């Protein structure tokens, strides 16, 4: 059958999958915020530290003292409102802004799945996720629709497919496939697990996990797309993410990916689930039946939305390949590493010893990083060039404010990558205060020898 793009964009589908996805997404984000607060991580990561590592171009985003709690409150409330479908458009915008603000406050806490949540919530701003099974559609018939454009649901499938497939492509490299690194380092550390503990000491298990993980990421979005393989694929999703949750402390992410995979199932399944929820809440399921079809008309407003979405997906396809513009080993320089779905691919350990020099007198002294950074911040900073540079500029400003003159900052640093011997990392002859952060190649990173 010939595929007609024009016919596809005019086709509609029951809104139940998108409504169910909205409910699950909002609830999981609400639980995540409560969990983050309950563990005391707001205080630990955003109140106690004296210095925060900002992202390039977002220097103005930083914790705002005790008012940081207000940002988390707004994020949690907006997530709950998204789940309820209450003032949906406003709520999802507020969630996107507050969650992304939290993510940008300190580069130390960067995780791929935080980035994924920001992207997903941005995408959901443009989707009619509040027109079915929501407070908005219940209160106002003019905002209620039973059928929505098919592409609005498929756009979430596309984003999930990009995340999985690019994560699989990133695993097609020697350390992961030929040396089972860094799993060969991480898995044996879980010796305390019942049954699995002994197995995780075996080399064949490390390679099985490495190859299995690569194949899973590469093929799972396609297996979910086809009805014949969908149920098997979903079982794989559950097993894979259950294992990652057991083996690695990655919070809510496995649950988010398991629930997100349900978007690939036919609307009938989501309708049955929502009907059961209705019976539990004593809501008449017929409330949302036969509310008509949402047709997105040709208008300047919708044209702008379409343009934004096209640009959004184009960037998601292209951004992970930006590392090709930089010389050197990607895992060593980390230029183009973030925002590219390179999930759990490397283990880096290192140290950075900063030297403050008076350029005229030659007097010098060394910095105790723990005077300014938390243990976690120091650990992350010591292996990431942009964070080393940012911290050096902070030290320069700090010591100049203390009355020191002619300040220069140098660093002696060594890093070990994926179990190899440590190597010199940053050129110790470079005054880091002479260097500026930009998108260009960082020539002051020493070449990786791979010993």
Question: So how many helices?
Answer: 19
Question: What pattern of helices and strands is seen along the backbone?
Answer: HEHHHHHHEHHHHHHHHHHEEHHEE
Multimeric organization: single chain
Category from helices, strands and their pairing? alpha+beta
Dominant shape: globular
Strand content: 5-15%
With strands numbered from the N-terminus, the spatial order across the biggest sheet is: 4-3-5-6
Helix content: 40-55%
Strands, count: 6
N→C terminal distance: 55 Å
Q: What are the segments in which pLDDT stays under 50 over at least 5 consecutive residues?
A: none
Mean pLDDT: 92
- Give the biggest beta sheet: 4 strands, antiparallel
Radius of gyration: 25 Å
């Amino acid at each position: 059958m010939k595929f007609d793009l024009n016919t596809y964009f005019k086709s509609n589908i029951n809104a139940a999958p998108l409504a169910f996805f909205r409910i699950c997404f909002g609830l999981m984000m609400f639980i995540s915020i409560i969990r983050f607060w309950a563990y005391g991580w707001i205080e630990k990561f955003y109140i106690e530290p004296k210095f925060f590592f900002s992202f390039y171009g977002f220097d103005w985003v930083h914790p705002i003292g005790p008012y940081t709690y207000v940002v988390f409150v707004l994020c949690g409330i907006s997530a709950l409102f998204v789940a309820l479908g209450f003032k949906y458009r406003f709520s999802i915008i507020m969630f996107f802004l507050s969650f992304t603000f939290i993510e940008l406050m300190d580069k130390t806490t960067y995780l791929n799945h935080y980035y994924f949540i920001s992207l997903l919530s941005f995408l959901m701003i443009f989707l009619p996720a509040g027109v079915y099974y929501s407070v908005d559609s219940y209160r106002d018939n003019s905002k209620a629709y039973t059928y929505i454009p098919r592409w609005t649901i498929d756009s979430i499938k596309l984003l999930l497919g990009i995340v999985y497939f690019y994560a699989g492509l990133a695993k097609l490299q020697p350390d992961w496939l030929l040396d089972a690194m860094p799993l060969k380092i991480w898995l044996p550390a879980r010796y305390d697990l019942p049954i699995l503990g002994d197995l995780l000491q075996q080399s064949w298990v490390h390679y099985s996990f490495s190859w299995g993980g690569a194949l899973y990421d590469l093929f799972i979005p396609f297996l979910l797309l086809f009805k014949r393989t969908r149920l098997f694929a979903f079982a794989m999703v559950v097993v894979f993410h259950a294992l990652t949750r057991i083996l690695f402390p990655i919070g809510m992410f496995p649950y988010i990916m398991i629930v997100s995979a349900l978007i690939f199932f036919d609307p009938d399944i989501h309708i049955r689930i929502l009907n059961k929820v209705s019976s539990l809440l004593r809501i008449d399921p017929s409330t949302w039946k036969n509310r008509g079809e949402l047709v997105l008309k040709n208008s300047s407003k919708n044209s702008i939305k379409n343009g934004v979405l096209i640009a959004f997906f184009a960037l998601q396809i292209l951004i992970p390949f930006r590392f090709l513009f930089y010389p050197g080993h990607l895992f060593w320089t980390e230029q183009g590493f973030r925002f590219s779905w390179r999930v759990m691919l490397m283990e880096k350990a290192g140290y950075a010893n900063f030297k403050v020099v008076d350029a005229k007198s030659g007097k010098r002294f060394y910095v105790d990083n723990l005077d300014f950074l938390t243990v976690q911040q120091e650990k992350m900073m010591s292996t990431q060039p942009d964070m080393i540079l940012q911290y050096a500029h902070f030290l320069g400003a700090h010591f100049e404010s203390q009355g020191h003159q002619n300040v220069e900052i140098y660093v002696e640093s060594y890093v070990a990558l994926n179990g190899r011997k440590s190597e010199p990392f940053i050129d110790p002859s470079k005054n880091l205060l002479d260097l500026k952060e930009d998108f260009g190649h960082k020539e002051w990173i020493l070449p990786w020898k791979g010993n």
